[in-house]
Design a protein that fits this description.
The chain has 190 residues and is mainly alpha-helical. It has a single domain, classed as dinb family like domain (Four Helix Bundle (Hemerythrin (Met), subunit A), Up-down Bundle). It is built from six helices and four strands, in the order αααααββαββ. The strands form two sheets. Strands 1-2 form a two-stranded antiparallel ribbon. A two-stranded antiparallel ribbon has the order 3-4. Helix 2 packs parallel to helix 6 and helix 4 runs antiparallel to helix 6 (148-172). The longest helix has 25 residues, at 148-172. It is globular and about 45 Å long.
């Protein structure tokens, strides 16, 4: 009886903790369309897809890669963290600082990436002028600067691309995308 009760408690706590992460579902859509709300909604869609692409990944999934030249799922997740840092740094008005992430455990890597997407979205929702969000990337003694346009076709689009790879790779390693997740509505069927 104790074992069953302990299992139920652990399972329930795991569900509660998972739901504390952003993007279990997409937040309600803003009432009006502005530069910031449209850009934020793109990031929210990305966050939702990332949440469910990474939900329930197992060690075999994290190490999977289709061939020797490809990144593993874990390496792709580390790249996604970098992309989330690039976008968040731009909206915070900071120069991008590339952090080492290979020492993070999977849960922390996932949580940090989701939190970065959420912070980015929250900042974007409050803005009506995307031109002020300049991406600043250190290049040796110089800093390259890119307008927000480059966020859309750069880190944000790249992140969406890589989330799709994770979904494909997890299917290939025998762990399909969770059922009941509607990418159209941003909701989870109970």
């Amino acid at each position: 009886m104790r074992v069953v009760l302990s299992f139920v408690m652990l399972f329930t706590m795991g569900k509660i903790n998972a739901q504390k992460l952003p993007y279990y579902e997409i937040p309600e859509a803003p009432k009006e369309y502005t530069q910031g709300t449209v850009a934020a909604r793109m990031v929210d869609g990305l966050g939702f897809r990332y949440y469910w692409a990474t939900e329930g990944l197992k060690p075999k999934d994290l190490s999977y890669k289709p061939n020797q030249e490809a990144r593993s799922v874990r390496e792709t997740l580390e790249h996604l963290l970098v992309l989330s840092v690039m976008t968040l740094s731009a909206v915070e008005g900071k120069e991008v600082v590339f952090e080492k992430s290979d020492d993070l455990v999977f849960d922390d890597l996932r949580k940090k990436t989701l939190q970065n997407f959420k912070k980015t979205s929250d900042i974007l929702k409050k803005s009506n002028d995307l031109s002020k969000f300049v991406m600043k990337i250190p290049r040796g003694d110089n800093t390259a600067e890119f307008p927000f346009w480059n966020q859309l076709n750069g880190p944000i689009a790249d992140a969406i691309w890589h989330v799709g790879q994770i979904v494909s790779f997890r299917r290939s390693s025998g762990n399909p995308f969770p059922k009941g997740v509607s990418l159209l509505t941003g909701k989870v069927k109970k």
